[in-house]
Write a structure and sequence with these properties.
It contains seven helices and two strands; from the N terminus they run αααααβααβ. By secondary structure, the chain is mainly alpha-helical. A two-stranded parallel sheet has the order 1-2.
Length: 140
C-alpha cells in the first residue's frame, strides 16, 4: 500500500545534498544579515533581502523559512510577495524616494558619464516595474 500523505503534498524544491544544503544555508544567512543591516541603515532595504533569505532557506533550511514567514513585521510582506507578487504602497514610495535620491547623487558626483546615465536609467526601469506590481496593505 502506498503512503498517500506524501502523494498529496505540492511539489517543492528537490531535497539538496549536504554540500548544496550548506551553500543554501550560507546564502540564507548572508541575505538575513544584509536585511538586518537594512533595519538600521537608511537606504539599504530589509524586505528584499529577507525575500531572498526565505527563498534560499526554502531550498536548504526549512526552519528558517518558517520563521521568516511567521515573522510579525516582515512575514506578511514576504507572504504577499510569494502569493501575489504584491508590494505595499509604503514600500513602493520608500524605494522610489531612495532611488530618486541615489540618482540625483550619482548625477552630481564626478563619475564616468556612462555611470551617470546607466545607473539612473536602471533605477527608473526598476521604479516603473515596482509600481506595476499589485499592492498589498501590509507594512514594508
Amino acid at each position: 500500500m502506498k503512503n498517500t500523505t506524501t502523494q498529496n503534498r505540492p511539489p517543492g524544491p528537490p531535497t539538496p545534498g549536504p554540500v548544496a544544503a550548506l551553500l543554501w544555508r550560507f546564502a540564507a544567512l548572508l541575505a538575513l544579515l544584509l536585511g538586518a543591516v537594512g533595519i538600521v541603515l537608511p537606504g539599504l532595504p530589509t524586505v528584499p533581502f529577507w525575500l531572498l533569505a526565505a527563498w534560499c532557506a526554502s531550498r536548504g533550511w526549512p526552519a528558517v523559512e518558517r520563521w521568516l514567514l511567521a515573522h510579525p513585521r516582515h512575514g506578511p510582506s514576504i507572504r504577499a510577495w510569494r502569493e501575489r507578487g504584491a508590494v505595499p504602497r509604503r514600500a513602493k514610495w520608500s524605494a522610489t524616494l531612495m532611488m530618486a535620491l541615489s540618482s540625483a547623487l550619482i548625477v552630481y558626483l564626478p563619475l564616468t558619464p556612462w555611470v551617470q546615465v546607466v545607473a539612473p536609467a536602471t533605477m527608473l526601469a526598476v521604479a516603473i516595474w515596482l509600481w506595476r506590481r499589485p499592492e498589498d496593505g501590509g507594512l514594508a
